[in-house]
Amino acid sequence: MTLEPIPGFILLEMAGASGSLQCGELAHLTGVSPDTIRHYEHIGILRKAPRTSGGYRIYGRQGVDRVRLVQRAIELGFTLSELSEIIKVRNGGGVPCQPVLGLTEEKLRSLEQQISELRSTQHYMKPLVKQWRAKLSQTEPGNKAMLLESLADGSHASAKPGKNLRRKSKI
Prior knowledge:
This protein is elongated. Helix 2 crosses helix 3. A two-stranded antiparallel ribbon has the order 1-2. It is an all-alpha fold. It contains seven helices and two strands.
């Protein structure tokens, strides 16, 4: 049995005993862009990095752990703003555990709501697809079946889709 190398292990070894990583190396190890690393530093997620005489940022090995923590937290629904505040509290000696738990509980409730809306949409769409298949099979080739238009005329299932069918605006 052969062991697969740990992603980034070789690069960490190349960093030497000091564990120093330049911005691009940290970005490569964590799968983000150097701009993201600089942004994380700017908003306080990563500590201000010391610079070489040439002006390059130098991060310690803990930077890899911090960026990976942020990536996982984002997957769970945390925003960079939330993470920045939590980390600032922690870096200032505070204990943000209760707020972290509260935010996580909110995110879980939101996820449960989204799942409910998706189920509602699924129940709406199943009979709709069945109706549209039947309508399309009765439509002469080359003619319009007017499937989308049937949404407006009420000739489809009476259930309403969940909110998740609406596009989210980017503000």
